[in-house]
Amino acid sequence: SENTVCPSPGAMSQALAKALPQAEGEGGSRRSSWGLLVTAGVGGTLVALYAVATPFVTPALRKVCLPFVPATAAQIQNVLKMLENRSGSLVDIGSGDGRIVIAAAKKGFQAVGYELNPWLVWYSRYRAWRDGVHQNTKFYISDLWKVSFSHYKNVVVFGVPQMMPQLEKKLEEELECNARIIACRFPFPCWIPDHTTGEGIDTVWAYDLKHSRGCETKSSEITPETES
């Protein structure tokens, strides 16, 4: 058999002393690499979450600060109540995630939503497809101030006080007198509502444009006066 030579304790100590720094260097390098990978992974995840979530909470209408706030179930039911016995086309101004448009489509309306936030528009289209009403709904990426609503008979608005005066003027100029405007959360400043339902943030006001001062003025302007 072959003879085995055992190293002396001194030689073993010297070899171990040389090996330890090398092992510690390799372990430190591995730990550093893992740290970089973890940091990059967490950072990437946060960036992705920010990219997805930011459009849902930042202003959707640039002219007025109007953040996305989803309609409550009570608000949706109140809007649908104001649409009873109504027909024709419907538009939701600032349609958000599309829940009002989808609810109206389920009631038989050809419903359209205008929303400046592209993420919300794409999500609305997905929800409409998922709920089986994509053929009765359309969603457009557009600024409400650059769109004419003249061919809609039913208009739903989730606005803020700062935008209501100018929007009131815009709708009065564009809509026909048989149109109904439904305001949620905040009423229009000058119009007197024909119907009101709900409480607090769920309050909904309905305005029949034929009863507004603007339409009465238009009617008097186009109606010839007769001499007595």
From TrEMBL:
The keyword Membrane applies. One of its GO terms (cellular component) is mitochondrial membrane. InterPro entries: FAM173A/B, SAM-dependent_MTases_sf. The chain crosses the membrane at residues 34-53. One of its GO terms (biological process) is methylation. It is found in: Mitochondrion membrane. SUPFAM superfamilies: S-adenosyl-L-methionine-dependent methyltransferases. Keywords: Membrane, Methyltransferase, Mitochondrion, S-adenosyl-L-methionine, Transferase, Transmembrane, Transmembrane helix. GO terms for molecular function: protein-lysine N-methyltransferase activity. Belongs to the ANT/ATPSC lysine N-methyltransferase family. PANTHER family: ATP SYNTHASE SUBUNIT C LYSINE N-METHYLTRANSFERASE, METHYLTRANSFERASE DOMAIN-CONTAINING PROTEIN. This is ATP synthase subunit C lysine N-methyltransferase. It comes from Urocynchramus pylzowi.
